[in-house]
Amino acid sequence: MPRGLFITLEGLDGSGKTTQIKRLALWMQQRGLDPVITRQPGGTATGDRIRALLLDSGSTPLAPMTEMALMFADRAQAIAEVIEPALSAGRIVLCDRFTDSTEAYQGGGRQLGSEAVLNLHHLICGNLQPDLTLLLLPSLQASLTRARRRNERHAAETGQDENRFEQEQGEFFRRVWEKYREIARREPQRVALIEGNLGVDEVHEQIVETVSERLVSVGHHA
Q1: Is residue 210 part of a domain?
Q2: Is the residue at 222 inside a domain?
Q3: Which of 16, 41, 44, 204 has its Cβ near the most Cβ atoms within 10 Å?
């Protein structure tokens, strides 16, 4: 059986990833494709517990190395439990965040550097790479405004606080944003950069065009 296709969505909180991954999954389902949808941190029972620890604002302070180690613990479990079995079965995997997020947030934002992140990825994740990464990069201010509004709504609806990263200052997010751009420049074959303050439909159209080309190139026809 041919190996499946691993597609990740990346970007700052508030970039529209969650909306777009749902729309992309629906687009695939309407074409007879049945993607596995997951997220990081989370996506497994162990990962959801790690997610609660990482994102709850009550968890501060976490040492940057602790934060990065927890991200990779979550990722290792997701690869073993969800991602690798699905790819081995020939499925398409849509993942909301992967190691690019750790490189951007911990490598860039926390200033731990790319080398430490990439070395851990090689060691812990067997250097598993996405076949395609969709990087949503609206302006920094637009992302932050949307993220704070969404997290306030989420907390009011569920009682769960996932606001720890949004408590950081603007310079932290500037470093994250710049690191994402650096990743896109470094790996243009893998990373499709969708930037600017585009509407939801415009972003979806760009995603569908990019994904369609990749599906055709690997023998899927959507």
Answers
A1: yes
A2: no
A3: 41
